[in-house]
Write a structure and sequence with these properties.
heterodimer; A: mainly alpha; two-stranded antiparallel sheet; B: about 300 residues; mainly alpha; 12 helices
């Protein structure tokens, strides 16, 4: 019953967004698009955090996804949205499946640091790749969506928003199903005590591997959708402070439900866009203070406010 | 030939710098098990304070050589103000929580301090170029290096030597090692653990600020230097093995030489090389070069 409630809420939110978005001013729609992209990435972070792993390098897949989508035009002249997203998913899945062979042997700080190293390797490479614009990055354009020409049309923004919302809905429902499956439930057991999980006959390594690849795919999708909706990408997406933002939103939202990352990302994006407007030099300070308060007083994240008994964020 | 000498000397200079940055970080981790992201902000605070105070010193026309003392004083000032504030005001409430939670706490601190710096010093760059050239220069194989680099090297060696001596030869050092091995047992033997933490964190903060103060003459002091530096320092301490003093020294040397070599032969791989070394070392030795085996929890 409770399972279905989450899906029902997700569907209602999706429907409401799709119906009301055309009446929203452009900047609000853009804010929601960006928040949804972040939400998809943080959904993946949530999967890892439930397994007890905090990655300070998820910018790697966020950036990889964006570049996998964005470089299709300069390399092959492809500007079809579906192909761009598919390429982001394929490349992130491939890279993460290989890196996970290594990363699944690491825990805690070492997991965080090794993933940070990998994302900084990508950053270091992109910064020096002048054909891709070095630190400036380059512009990304989408011309067609499933073959239909959308570039420059009046409903271009809305369509990209709608696609982002739909993908976010699909990801959320799938991850929700996964978390309630046998393997999905193993994540929290691994976080609590992985040795016991091994004794019970389940494979810790395989579960971590699977969760890592799924979170990488989500980060790549988020990155590609971000590239498409912002229309510009640069290596900063792989810099460790970007990964730090994802960690921040994950801690802020909590890991109680697939709804939490989207809620957290929306709050984060709203605060950020207003803070940019009114106090560009103090908004990080507010974020840092909020993070400390959440860690100290709300270890289950904002989501624990919605439940009677909050669970630990770690 | 000239190029090889250049790689070696550049590498050595860069290693000294890395070592000064990493030593405070590894000290704090070794004793308190806190991987302090805010170390980057302490670095930036040190750099900004030194740039302001020494800049003022030069403006007033005081004897130029005194600027080195001013830089040192700035580092100590930052250390004894920011260190206790952070440790007493925040971190001591967090002891005993997961290491990764402590990383997040220091990350939040880092965000706060970054904006604090912007509020106090603004976003325009500061320049403190004078101390870099004051000491004259030396020539090796057609290459000219400012003597300031030698000062950096000397300070790195001195810090390493003093810390190694203090840890192994003094009573306080032995107490510290006891705390590192077993905090509760040390406490039950009458060691004031919270005082040890307090002193360690302040010392570590001071070292971070010193790194910043010494770097200020070589760079333009601007927002973002903390974020750049902390990930380099992370690479060094993780390669060396978290909390290991000789590890940090060896890792600094390794990273310094590798980076100098790539800058000379393959400049496009500059940043890449450092993290590549980090990833490579972690793949072979998952907990760094000088790491101790830990018992598994059941």
């Amino acid at each position: 019953m409770k399972r279905e409630r989450t899906v029902v809420i997700l569907t209602i939110v999706l429907a409401a967004m799709l119906v009301f978005a055309p009446f929203l001013p452009n900047w609000t729609m853009f804010l929601f698009t960006v928040a949804l992209c972040y939400g998809i990435v943080v959904l993946g972070m949530m999967l890892l955090i439930r397994t007890g792993l905090v990655s300070f390098g998820h910018g790697l897949y966020y950036c990889l996804g964006a570049y996998a989508a964005g470089t299709l035009e300069p390399l092959f002249g492809i500007t079809e949205l579906a192909v761009m997203l598919g390429s982001a998913v394929a490349i992130c899945a491939g890279v993460s499946a290989i890196l996970a062979l290594l990363l699944r042997r690491y825990r805690d700080i070492f997991f965080a640091m090794l993933s940070l190293a990998f994302s900084m390797i990508l950053y270091g490479l992109l910064v020096k790749t002048s054909s891709l614009g070095s630190t400036d990055g380059f512009n990304v354009t989408v011309k067609t969506m499933l073959g239909v020409h959308i570039a420059g049309t009046a409903y271009e923004r809305y369509l990209i928003f709608a696609v982002t919302a739909l993908i976010a809905w699909v990801c959320a429902v799938l991850i929700h199903r996964y978390l309630n499956s046998h393997r999905g439930r193993l994540a929290e057991a691994i976080r609590d005590n992985e040795l016991r999980v091994e004794y019970m006959g389940a494979s810790v390594a395989n579960t971590i591997h699977l969760n890592y690849v799924m979170s990488a795919i989500l980060a790549g999708l988020g990155g590609a959708l971000m590239a498409v909706s912002v229309g510009h990408i640069d290596p900063e997406m792989a810099y460790w402070t970007t990964s730090g933002e994802f960690v921040f939103i994950s801690i802020l939202s909590g890991t109680g439900s697939v709804l939490a990352p989207f809620l957290g990302a929306t709050i984060f994006e709203s605060i950020r866009s207003f803070a940019y407007e009114y106090s560009p030099n103090t908004w990080q300070m507010a974020l840092g203070a909020a993070m400390l308060l959440v860690i100290m007083f709300l270890p289950g994240g904002l989501w624990s406010l919605f439940r009677r008994s909050g669970r630990s964020a770690m | 030939m000239t190029q090889l000498v250049a790689v070696l000397i550049d590498g050595l200079i860069y290693s000294s710098w890395l070592f000064i940055m990493a030593i405070g970080l590894t000290l704090i981790y070794g004793v308190m098990k806190i991987l302090n992201i805010a170390h980057g902000s302490l670095f930036a605070l040190g750099a900004y304070t030194a740039a302001s105070l020494a800049g003022y010193w030069f403006e007033q026309g005081y004897p130029a050589m005194g600027s080195y003392a001013v830089m040192l004083v700035s580092a100590v000032l930052v250390g004894i103000i920011a260190g206790p504030l952070l440790e007493r005001g925040l971190l001591r409430f967090m002891y005993g929580r997961d290491e990764i939670v402590l990383v997040l706490v220091t990350y939040a601190t880092f965000l706060i301090l970054e904006d604090f710096i912007k509020l106090v010093w603004g976003v325009d760059p500061y320049f403190l170029y004078q101390p870099y050239g004051l000491l004259g220069s030396f020539d090796i194989a057609d290459l000219t290096y400012p003597n300031y680099n030698l000062l950096l090297l000397a300070i790195a060696v001195a810090i390493g030597a003093v810390l190694a001596w203090a840890l192994t030869r003094t009573r306080q050092g032995k107490i510290l090692i006891a705390v590192i091995h077993d905090r509760e047992m040390a406490a039950s033997q009458g060691v004031n653990v919270s005082r040890v933490y307090f002193v360690t964190f302040t010392l570590g903060a001071m070292l971070g600020a010193l790194g910043g103060a010494l770097t200020a003459p070589m760079i333009s002091v601007q927002p973002g230097i903390g974020a750049e530096t902390i990930v380099l320092a992370f690479a060094v301490v993780v390669i060396g093995g978290l909390g290991s003093l000789p590890g940090a020294a060896l890792a600094a040397l390794l990273v310094g030489i590798v980076r100098a070599a790539t800058v000379h032969f393959r400049p496009e791989l500059d940043l890449f090389s450092i993290y590549f070394v980090m990833a490579a070392v972690l793949i072979v030795r998952p907990k760094g070069l000088f790491s101790t085996q830990e018992a598994r929890k059941i």
